[in-house]
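Annotated sample (chain length 351).
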Amino acid sequence: MSAHTFQAHRPALTTAPAPAAGSPAAAPAPLPAAGPRTASAGASAAADAAAAGRDAYAHLSLTRTVPKEFVHRASVAEVLLTDWQRTGEDRFTVSAQWPRGHSFFTPIAGYHDPLIAAETIRQSGLLLAHTEYGVPLDHSFVMHDLSLAVDPAHLHVGAAPAALTIDVTCSDITRRRGRAASLRYTSTLRRDGRILARADASCTCTPPAVYQRLRGNRTHTTPLALTAPTAPQTVGRTSPTDVVLTPTAHPHTWQLRTDTRHPVLFDHPVDHIPGMVLLEAARQATTAHLGHPTLPLTLTTTFTNYAELDTPCHLQTHTTTPTTPGHHTTHITCHQNNHPVFHSTITTTTP
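Output written by the structure step:
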């Protein structure tokens, strides 16, 4: 279970007026039909976008990012999405841009890091939940599963940033008080009209009071002392600050290393270990297990419990016999306090 929580600092963006006592729950106002794009500047950009919904971004563009609050990022530099529009009932198109050199999702042998696609999918779900399904910004998101398959033929880093369009279909939508409480979304990522990746994910959206009851005093835990990193070159990294594993005395077993000062993995304060940290740990454990550089091709992850900051997490890996020459499938399990946290299956090739 991976929860994404972002506390907004603009009340107008965070909450909607509560319906009067005894009256029916207020449904989100319908979005206006697409029309001319309206401009906004400075601190009012996010508020304007929230008020106007997709009408504020009626034509897909790569000229600016969506408001960072919509994707639960504190740093504008970490926002990958640039626009969105509705294309049908529960169908949308989102645009995104991947930089040629990201500070954390660094290229792998000339390919864009496939995990930047996972982060793009994460952001897309948050964006649509807030802008199209009425979820206030102070709600917490719990991702339950994520599957991703990429085509390396379209992952090459080019002479300019990669411009993407993402076709998203939402399904299995449950609503409470007129807002989405849970949904599943499938996505097709295209670059220059060619399919780069396909993904499927599901999440729930939790109001602050409910989240507080679920988490209790866990919202104010003190993280474990930072442990020593595994050698960066063994996990496909060049800097020890980007390593999320610590070696143990047991073969194919690592302790999760959580550096809450990391500017990308911990973009803002959280009360648990974010899902993207767990995915990165699974990828690094795969590389360490295989003993050579890897390029993920498919990734399937199921999150079963929160990963707590104040208790050691341990990852174990094993591989299965490859069915495709040059491909390796690695299974990664993570436990904390003798309870499963997540399970990932990653198929990789050598870049």
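Annotation: The mean pLDDT is 86.
Annotation: The CA atoms of residues 13 and 240 lie 38 Å apart.
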